[in-house]
Amino acid sequence: MNYIANLTGVLQKNPRSADRRIVSAELLTIVESGPGSSPRPCWVATYLEQAISEFPEDAKISGAIRKLAAEYPEDFFPAAAKLLKDGATSPALRMVAGAMLRDKSFFVRLTNPARRSCDSAVRLFRTLLSVDPTLDFRLARLLSARNGSSPEGVLTGGHAVRALDILDKTSTGQRLLSVLGRLHHCDDGRLSAKAALVVGKHRDNPDWTAKQLLRDDPRLRANAIEAFWGSRSEEAVRILEGCAESASHRVAGNALVGLHLAGCPGVAEKVLAMSRSGEPGRRAAAAWVMRRIGSPGFVARLAELMRDESPGVRSMAIRAMVEIGRVEIGRVDIGRVETGRVDIGRVQAAPEPEMPAETVAEGKPVRRVWDFSILKLDQTR
Known about the structure:
Blueprint: H1 3-13, H2 20-33, H3 41-53, H4 61-71, H5 73-83, H6 91-101, H7 106-110, H8 118-129, H9 135-141, H10 157-170, H11 177-180, H12 189-203, H13 206-212, H14 218-226, H15 234-243, H16 249-261, H17 267-274, H18 280-293, H19 299-305, H20 311-324, E1 327-328, H21 344-348, E2 376-377
Antiparallel strand pairs: 1-2
Helix pairs in contact: 1-2, 2-3, 2-4, 3-4, 3-5, 4-5, 4-6, 5-6, 8-10, 10-12, 12-14, 14-16, 15-16, 16-17, 16-18, 17-18, 18-20, 19-20
């Protein structure tokens, strides 16, 4: 008898009120009979939901959950993550979390940027930290390759960057510095720059930041400066002031944001001066800073930048105007800006835009970040 086919038939006839005991019987059959026909992902989710609902009633259910996790890990992970979105609040959910953590590919699945958003990965990781308090240390160790080596199991590329994002938002204090402390020297430029931000936040050491400002990579230097955001110490402000006129618009932009957060005077004037630079990159960076500060005092200048000759500058200015709340769908009355079509709601909920790249190759088109079909300046707010 094909138990999976039988269960499928039951659920197809009456998916909302199928007999729960039938579902449990089919679930336990997986444990007793060993691997059989691989179920579709939706049936793995159904088995798991029913197992949790009957967890206290049947001693064999815990074995069934472990069996599902071991034999169908690809389908088990998203189903379990969905159930754990509000935390491991019951013995059954803690059992599910434990089964998820036993998967040898757990960290690869967790840090896959193509499978889940950063926010959802962070929420799941926080839940799992309540089950295994050493989880952040275990994840950090998968980033600790030395001298460019890549032993089996070490996360690289987008997986490594996502892992740092997760650790940045969930780990506090300096407990991970023994593992991550040298990661900003790795050969992967994107990873080393991200590591400079994470390590810099946890170190909060002006001397360490000053050393990073001697590095060649402008992304790394900019991230080392970003690590000072929110600091008001004399040493931090001195470094930020020294970087506000940096030749790298990434570094200069992050320094201006840091000075604004530190409550330093004269920041708005410096941002406006930057927006009048002859370099498109610096004008785009200035629009990015205006968006981060969010002052209505920048509206007039942003309206001008929305007509800039550079597509990158126009895009960044549009995003800043949306953030400040002065751009709405409607009739254009500040000069026609046409860059395609997009839903305004999607633009407002889009991920944080990155600082514009340092250089754009001559003759190559600039990548669009957002598109609008019709824009207008709202003068009523």
